[in-house]
Write a structure and sequence with these properties.
It is built from five helices and 87 strands. By secondary structure, it is mostly beta strands. Strand 45 and strand 46 form a beta hairpin. It is extended. This is Neogenin 1. Belongs to the immunoglobulin superfamily. DCC family.
Length: 1330
């Protein structure tokens, strides 16, 4: 059947005839569905198989006959074939899109009378003059659109004209128009077109008419060119110059494609008009499928080759049903159909159906499965023996076997190997290539798949028995790395390029190294270099030359998938800036063979676009680029280049334009990310708008917009750098598109900005375009709409309120509203993408928008309405609300144990869903008592937006509870629900030795020694003391305190220099100030609390005994052991420690253990530490005192600095064994140690006295009592206070103090004092243990 155009009420026959020896059964499909013609009174099947449609039905809402028809022929025993698809079009109801209008024309000129109708009805149009039919000839003719052209007009052509549509039924008449014929004007009249040619798209074989009607005096003559070559119509049957100058091309072919120019000339002047002709070609077969005869298990291919324009799509049909590609039915070489492992049911008719926009065609062939020929009489071979797979790979298997028992020589036997996937009944066959061969390699298998093989031997009599089936599984695919993502290359100098990339997403095991390949553009030899990291700079390249780069990742299996090539050009010279007063030109030499002698240089001519007469010349060498300098900034210039030879100057290029920059710009790196991206989805389009990168000093050459459904990489559009919006057209409704925007320059593309949007459904009529208000129920607005408001501004007032202000140019200058106009404000956010606008009305020139989300970008626009008149929406203004405190806790909190470290756990979480701002940190609370007050929980701050954190040195086999809260610039959010985690069981590592692998425990500033109590958290037995024993303890403490005070007094009285006096005065003032302010529930401890049972002083020369329940606390021996903190270290500390401290935090003092009445072991001053974070310094040399703590003695007291040190989590043993104060860990969550690591090179004098426990604060840090920041204050919002970390005294000062101490004191005296103190301690130990 062929395509048919019909009119309403006519009868139509769709032809169809099929031939077969057995008469076929004919059926018809309309739009893919079989028609039931038995009970149809209008449509009937004719005896030859054609379809007759009587009295075609067609109305605006009922079009049952229009559509696509297909004839289907079936023979029961053979199969089914289908015809091409034929389109039945019914001409619509007669209607004019334009009608003739009265006009006048000079005698001898041409006139045109319009009568535009819909394309279907154009053939049914005829004309009347004064109610009499117009006869068409060479002078008077009708265009395909229906318009009438009268050339060389005479007086007889004057009159009343009308056109008529006769498409069956009542004719439809247009309005009448009068054509007046004017006498010659005698004076020249301007030449002008009354009808110009318009571009046409035609199907090959059709006729094309380019109308071209020009008028003027003298009467113009019209000629035509095609692709700028004169078109000769004389002697060409297919090209006809119609009267008046129109061009008709009959039976168009692809050779006729091109640009046609109509040139009208009347001797005085010339005018011209252009139009394009595009020719489309329906599908045609270059190779049709042929019938195939085959045996079962064979593989066959049906060939089909088509051509057409646009390129046709091909589908295959078997017995009328679409073939769906699978493992056994494959489309190969674009259009061919391959069927693997034939089975009997594959028999039938296969048709190749080709289709494009202008037609479709079909060609078919039959597949016949032959039965195997019966074996001739004679012995057949038995089954082959010992079938084994000798080589198994991922995609091939090699089989070997032994000859059958019946034929041990087997020289004349051939073998067929049948194989299939397990569970599939489709066997494929592979034959050995020569007689006697007993092995075969089966190719093109799937990895990690089980196949079943059997082997059959054949002799001259036929095939014998089959071997026992053998199951073999192919190997899994070797896991090679995928391509390295985000490969970028940029020229870092004229001779070097830096290439960067990221780790492959599918690494499939550890990446061992990368190979970077590079090649000069136009060369064919690639060079490579091995790279261990993720970037590399290649030096020694040529200046201003293009190179291509690619990267391949290697793992233990070998090389992975290569990246795409990236191309970059090295810089032309050492200049890194693009000056605003210069432009770089590049060109290519003239094609080889066109040089008239050797090129000696190039001549460049340039001029300002605004002043075409003022041309400047510049002559350069033979290089293919030139930097033109000394230009005006922000000015557009035109350039052209010509080659110079010894024989003269060659032809110049066309003028090309470029604009200088306003300022000097950098193009050594890619542009930064655009500062904003907004998307506005419509039904089939998305409006994208953006703002340029904030850094305006980097050259932006343009923007690349990527978009696609679910992925932004499907389509890419590049726009000019001046453009700020773009409409993406031809999208699908109700679809989720991802959009990316990147700025680019000659170095490459910058960082992308992502946005997503869901196009509106078809039914959504709201806001079809930005400037259309779709409100069918409102009165029709006046033809003059109001001016939209201008100067819309958004002023952010708070986290949920923005004030919108605007001006109205239709108001008087004082902007006073005196009439009944009102304004409509609308606003929305782009997150999520499909949010609807909200609107509100206002009668003033401002509006307060409330109830907005914090930290969210909104766009606002305003329109004005006055009575029945409305304006369009104004330009949009944007505003981002301020941040506010997070209103939801972190999500998905999980706790896992770290592998190989049972006392270390890893906490993971996700950010809060309502962050209300940029997250600046998190605080992890943990406790062994879920019901404890929150200020009794231990805290671990996390700086930045990290989502994981390690907590170390927890107690084994203990349940812990964890909560997390997020923090932004406005404060803390709510806490998450408590998550329980029990640490694993295991042997407690020795905490007495600070050897490699065991970590001296760091105690955060939140740690506070427990006060009072009798049960140790580690279960060490401390029997309750009666009141007498307590009295002895108190007396002992008193005695020791007196002894210490005496020693201090002796030291202080010996200070002689004025410097020493000042120090002593300062120390005394510190001693007497600042009473300890503790929590009312806590016992008030003295400044130094010694628990005799657990503390002993070791002699200086002895190394500490590794006690499993004690922790080494190395003490620095001299002033060099203490690293002064300079300003840079201060800043490091502030970066590393997130130091927040509330006003009340010093007064409220409580710990997890504090309420349980534990016995205190030792109090250390911790004011020097910023509260609320345990600090882990990474390098072992990086430990630094955060304050200088100094005794009143002349030398720096070693013990006093221990509070200023925090252990490194991975700290190595110190080079020397130092004396230690052994302290039993008392905190249930962390052991306690504050080691200071001396430099390896430092030496110390063992004769120097050591007073480990005489601790006083330095004068510049007058906080005397031990204070810790209360964790409880974190729950309330407090302004963060900076923590000032005082510096240690410089090295010169402490050295001087040491010298003083040596000159003023005898070591013997100090030794006696120490011995006396040690004796007292032993007495106390004896008392308490008794």
């Amino acid at each position: 059947p062929m395509d048919v155009l019909s009119v309403r009420g006519a009868s139509v026959i769709m032809n169809c005839s099929a031939y077969c020896e057995t008469s076929p059964k004919i059926e018809w499909k309309k739009d893919g569905t079989f028609l039931n013609l038995v009970s149809d009174d209008r449509r009937q099947l004719l005896p030859d198989g054609s379809l007759l449609i009587n009295s075609v039905v067609h109305s605006k809402h009922n079009k049952p006959d229009e559509g696509y028809y297909q004839c289907v022929a079936t023979v029961e025993s053979l199969g089914t074939i289908v015809s091409r698809t034929a389109k039945l079009t019914v001409a619509g109801l007669p209607r004019f899109t334009s009608q003739p209008e009265s006009s006048s024309v000079y005698k001898g000129n041409s006139a045109i009378l319009n009568c535009e109708v819909n394309v279907d009805l154009a053939p049914f149009v005829r004309w009347e003059q004064d109610r009499q039919p117009v006869f068409l000839d060479d002078r008077v003719f009708k265009l395909p659109s229906g318009a009438l052209i009268i050339s060389n007009a005479t007086d007889l052509d004057g009159g009343l004209y009308r056109c008529i549509i006769e498409s069956g039924g009542t004719p439809k008449y247009s309005d009448e128009a009068e054509l007046k014929i004017l006498p010659d004007p005698e004076v020249p009249q301007n030449l002008m077109f009354v009808r110009q040619p318009s571009s046409l798209t035609k199907v090959s074989g059709q006729s094309a008419v380019f109308p071209c009607v020009a008028v003027g005096f003298p009467t113009p003559y019209v000629r035509w060119t095609r692709n700028e070559e004169e078109l000769t119509t004389e002697g060409y049957e297919r090209f006809l110059l119609l009267a008046g100058g129109s061009l008709e091309i009959s039976d168009v072919t692809e050779e006729d494609v091109g640009t046609y120019t109509c040139i009208a000339d009347n001797g005085n002047e010339t005018i011209e008009a252009q139009a394009e002709l595009t020719v489309q070609v329906p599908p045609e077969f270059l190779k049709r499928p042929a019938n195939i005869y085959a045996h079962e298990s064979m593989d066959i291919v049906f060939e089909c080759e088509v051509t057409g324009k646009p390129t046709p799509t091909v589908k295959w049909v078997k017995n009328g049903d679409m073939v769906i590609p699978s493992d056994y039915f494959k489309i190969v070489k674009e259009h061919n159909l391959q069927v693997l492992g034939l089975v009997k049911s594959d028999e039938g008719f296969y048709q190749c159906i080709a289709e494009n926009d202008v037609g479709n065609a079909q060609a078919g062939a039959q597949l016949i499965i032959l039965d195997l020929a019966p074996a001739t009489t004679g012995p057949l071979p038995s089954a082959p023996r010992d079938v084994v797979a000798t080589l198994v790979s991922t995609r091939f298997i090699r089989l070997t076997w032994r000859t059958p028992v019946s034929d041990p020589q087997g020289d004349n036997l051939t073998y067929s190997i049948f194989y299939t996937k397990e569970g599939i009944n489709r066997e494929r066959i592979e034959n050995t290539s020569r007689a006697g061969e007993t092995q075969v390699t089966i190719q093109n298998l799937m990895p990690e798949t089980v196949y079943v093989f059997r082997v059959v031997a054949q002799n001259k009599h036929g095939p014998g028995e089959s071997s026992v089936p053998l199951k073999v599984a192919t190997q899994p695919e070797v896991q090679l790395p995928g391509p390295a993502p985000n490969i970028r290359a940029y020229a870092s100098s004229p001779t070097s390029v830096t290439v960067t990339w990221e780790t492959p997403l599918s690494g499939n095991g550890e990446i061992q190294n990368y190979k970077l390949y590079y090649m000069e553009k136009g060369q064919d030899t690639e060079q490579d270099v091995d790279v261990g990291g993720l970037s590399y700079t290649i030096n020694g390249l040529k200046k201003y030359t293009e190179y291509s780069f690619r990267v391949v990742a290697y793992n233990k299996h070998g090389p992975g998938v290569s990246t795409q090539d990236v191309v970059v050009r090295t810089l032309s010279d050492g200049k890194l800036l693009y000056s605003g007063s210069s432009i770089m030109l590049h060109w290519q030499p003239p094609p080889a063979g066109t040089h008239s002698g050797q090129i000696t240089g190039y001549k460049i001519r340039y001029r300002k676009v605004s002043r075409k007469s003022d041309v400047t010349e510049s002559i350069g060498g033979t290089q293919l680029f030139q930097l033109i300098e000394g230009l005006e900034r922000g000015t557009e210039y035109s350039f052209r280049v010509a080659a110079l030879t010894v024989n003269g100057t060659g032809p110049a290029t066309d003028w090309i334009s470029a604009e200088t920059f306003e300022s000097d710009l950098d193009e050594t790196r890619v542009p930064e990310v655009p500062s904003s991206l907004h998307v506005r989805p419509l039904v089939t389009s998305i409006v994208v708008s953006w703002t340029p990168p904030e850094n305006q000093n980097i050259v932006v050459r343009g923007y690349a917009i990527g978009y696609g459904i679910g992925s932004p990489h499907a389509q890419t559009i590049k726009v000019d750098y001046k453009q700020r919006y773009y409409t993406i057209e031809n999208l699908d409704p109700s679809s989720h598109y991802v959009i990316t925007l990147k700025a680019f320059n000659n170095v490459g593309e910058g960082i992308p900005l992502y946005e997503s949007a869901v196009t509106r459904p078809h039914s959504d009529t709201s806001e079809v375009d930005l400037f259309v208000i779709n409100a069918p129920y409102t009165p029709v607005p006046d033809p003059s709409p109001m001016m939209p408001p201008v100067g819309v501004q958004a002023s952010i007032l708070s986290h949920d309120t923005i004030r919108i202000t605007w001006a109205d140019n239709s108001l008087p200058k004082n902007q006073k509203i005196t009439d009944a106009r009102y304004y409509t404000v609308r606003w929305k956010t782009n997150i999520p993408a499909n949010t609807k606008y909200k609107t509100a009305n206002a009668t003033t020139l401002s509006y307060l928008v409330t109830g907005l989300k914090p930290n969210t970008l909104y766009e606002f626009s305003v329109m004005v309405t006055k009575g029945r008149r409305s304006s369009t929406w104004s330009m949009t203004a944007h505003g981002t609300t301020f941040e506010s405190v997070p209103t939801s806790p972190p999500k998905d909190v999980t706790v896992v144990s770290k592998e190989g470290k049972p006392r270390t756990i890893i906490v993971n979480w996700q950010p809060p869903s309502e962050a209300n701002g940029k997250i600046t940190g998190y605080i992890i609370y943990y406790s062994t008592d879920v019901n404890a007050e929150i200020h009794d929980w231990v805290i671990e701050p996390v700086v930045g937006n990290r989502l994981t954190h390690q907590i170390q040195e927890l107690t084994l086999d203990t349940p812990y509870y964890f909560k997390i809260q997020a923090r932004n610039s406005k404060g803390m959010g709510p806490m998450s629900e408590a998550v329980q985690f029990r640490t694993p069981k295991g042997k407690l590592p020795s905490s007495g030795s600070a050897g490699k692998g065991s970590r001296p425990v760091d105690v955060g500033p939140d740690y506070k020694p427990p006060l009072g109590g009798s049960n140790s958290p580690h279960g060490s037995p401390t029997s309750p003391l009666d009141s007498n024993m307590l009295l002895v303890i108190i007396v002992s403490v008193g005695v020791i305190t007196i002894v210490i005070v005496v020693i201090v007094a002796v030291f202080c009285t010996r200070r002689t220099t004025s410097h020493q006096k000042k120090k002593r005065a300062a120390c005394k003032s510190v001693n007497g100030s600042h009473k300890y302010k503790g929590n009312s529930k806590d016992v008030k401890p003295p400044d130094l609390w010694i628990h005799h049972e657990r503390l002993e002083l070791k002699p200086i020369d002895k190394s500490p005994d590794p006690n499993p329940i004690m922790t080494d606390t190395p003490i620095p021996r001299n002033s060099q052991d203490i690293t002064p903190v300079d300003n840079s270290m201060d800043s490091n500390i502030h970066q590393r420690r997130n130091s927040y401290r509330g006003h009340e935090s010093e007064d409220s003092m409580s710990t997890l253990a504090g309420r349980r009445g534990m016995r205190p072991k030792m109090m250390m001053p911790f004011d020097s530490q910023p509260p609320q974070q345990s600090v882990r310094n990474t390098p072992s040399t990086d430990t630094m005192p955060a304050s200088s703590s100094q005794t009143c003695a002349d030398h720096q007291d070693p013990e006093s600095t221990t509070g200023s040190y925090l252990a490194n989590a991975q700290e190595e043993d110190s080079a020397q064994n130092l004396p230690t104060a052994h302290v039993r860990p008392s905190h249930p969550l962390k052991s306690f140690a504050v080691p200071a690591v001396p430099p390896a090179a430092s030496t110390y004098d063992p004769a120097l006295p050591s007073t480990p426990l005489l601790t006083q604060q330095a004068p510049n840090h007058p906080v005397h009592s031990v204070k810790t920041a209360s964790i409880g204050t974190l729950g309330r919002t407090r302004p963060p206070m900076p923590v000032v970390v005082p510096s240690a005294p410089d090295v010169q000062e402490t050295t001087r103090m040491l010298e003083d101490s040596e000159s003023n004191y005898e070591p013997d005296e100090l030794t006696k004092e120490m011995a006396h103190l040690e004796g007292l301690m032993k007495d106390l130990n004896a008392i308490t243990t008794a």
